[in-house]
Amino acid sequence: MLEVESVSYCYDQSRILHEISFMVEAGELVCVLGPNGCGKTTLLKNILGLLTPSAGSVRIDGEDVQKLSPKKLAQVMGYIPQAHTPPFPYKVFDVVLMGRTAHLSSLALPNKKDEEIAYESLAKLNITHLKDKIYTKLSGGERQLVLIARALAQQPKILIMDEPTISLDFGKQNVVLEHVRLLSRKGISILMVTHDPGHALFCADKVVTLKKGRLLKIGLPQDVISEDSMRDMYDTEVRIGKFKLPDERTICVCVPVPKPSEICMSA
Question: Where is the ABC transporter domain (predicted)?
Answer without folding.
Answer: 2-237
